[in-house]
Amino acid sequence: MTSKKLQINRRRFIYTTSAVAGGLLLPASYVRAAVKPRKVSPNEKMNIAAIGAGGQAVTDINGVSTENIVALCDVDQKRLEERAAKFPKAKLFRDYRKMLEEMTEIDGVTVSTPDHHHAHAALMAMKLGKHVYCQKPLTHSIWEARLLRETAAKAKVVTQMGNQGHSYDSTRRLVELVQSGAIGEVREVHVWTDRPIWPQGVERPKEAMTPPSHLDWDLWIGPAPMRPFHSAYAPFNWRGWWDFGTGAPGDMGCHNSDAAYWALKLDAPEWVEAESSGVNSETCPKWSIVRSHFGKRGKLPPVTLTWYDGSKTPSNALVDGEQLPKNGTIFVGSKGKIVFRDWNPNGFRLLPESDFKDFKGPEQTIPRAGDNPYQEWIKACKGGTPCLSNFDYAGRLTEFVLLGNVALRVGKKIEWDAKKMRAKNCPEADQYIRREYRKGWELKA
Residues with Cβ < 8 Å from 28, sequence gap 6 or more? Predict the structure, then answer.
């Protein structure tokens, strides 16, 4: 047997036996006792564990690979071994609960799983004193977002959500421009995306399929209600299914709405209403338009933010008939407009251009992160400047984004009581604000 094959077999033994040892697996909310994060100096490397090894996780792992990657976890054996080839010293696991319980040397984790696992992985890590970088949307439900925000504050760990545009210089400059009053009072914002790029508006498959041998389907399902395996769910199309994902708003809302949410100092909306191609109990709609209204914030006037996905976009008359990009934001101010194209280092324009020909803008007021959210998180973990998309901010942004999905599912305008976390006029919304979990996966504050 070759040395490489022997290495892989040894790793395979670690993650196979770890997944079944001891019978009943630890619940995600389990902790031995409150654990303080280890202090890591700027001159040493963090010990990082990756929860999720394929898809977006590849980018996340590479982003933190300046540190020690000490563990990799994925329910898919193929993906796990693909990543293991690059990080031969990392221990391998199928179940992140076992990994977090056993490996006390971990300083921080990346969470790059389907949405329905985000809260479980991040919550357990924080309670065990681990810093957390979690992909967007922060959670699968509004209640989970509130729970993670509160837990992060208590645990005093460094947190960052993976809406990487928050770390871009262009986003931070846009925020400075809006907050300086460059385009006057903003009462209207339009945000759109070309998602979904996966099936939505479909029903559950009637036939069952046998899970591939390399996939632990029970662990993949995790806290969601059990259902038979089907390729319609994994490995990619889970985003459109209510039990696992949060649709186009969840996928791109924390990206594309971020600049407006930050620049206009938004928090919880007063009301939300939505329209769509039609909602069923299984999947998100093919397209949706969601309007969220925010009241006055100090001296800032009320503002309505409208979200569009699928085939829907705002009118290009807002930008003098120009073709709209696939993803973007339009701020409509009393003195001008800003058109912001997400995922572009030079992503915004001031309109009309003739009015801003010699405009230089305000002085810089927001620290720059060099367009690198991973290094922003790592430096913060080592005592540097706090991350700006930490769970306090990201939790609020996620609550706002997911509230649009609640409005879609109940089919009526929601009057929102953020303090009590409930729709004042719509008690049937409760089931979508806080979900139930499969036995053994319950979450506790």
Answer: 97, 120, 121, 123, 124, 223, 441, 443
Q: Write down the residue that tokens 């706002």 correspond to.
A: 400
Q: Is residue 342 located within the same domain as residue 236? A: yes
Rg (CA), the chain: 22
Residues whose CB is less than 8 angstroms from the CB of residue 52 and which lie 6 or more positions away in sequence, other chains included: 60, 73, 74, 110, 111, 112, 113, 135
Give the HSE-up count for residue 351: Cα atoms under 13 Å, Cβ half-sphere: 16
Phi, psi of 152 (to 5 degrees): -60, -40
Tokens of 354: 């003739």
* Last residue of one domain, picked from the residues 108, 142, 164: 164
Q: Which residues pair with 297 in a beta bridge?
A: 300
Give the predicted TM-score (pTM) of the model: 0.94
SS3 state at 374: helix
> What dihedral do alpha carbons 5, 7, 9, 14 form, nearest 10°?
-170
430's tokens: 């409760």
- Cβ neighbour number for residue 278 with a 10 Å cutoff: 12
**At CA 121, angle to CA 118 and CA 125, rounded to 5?**
135
| CATH number reported for the structural domain that contains residue 310 in this entry | 3.30.360.10
The answer on 9 and 118 residing in a single domain is: yes
Give the 3-state secondary structure percentages of the chain, helix then strand then coil, rounded to 5: 35, 15, 50
Domain residue limits at 408: 166-200+232-368+389-433
- Residue 423 neighbours by CB under 8 Å, 6+ apart: 406, 410, 414, 415, 416, 417, 429, 430, 433
Interval 349-387: pLDDT, tens? 999 999 999 999 999 999 999 999 999 999 999 999 999
Residue type, 23: G
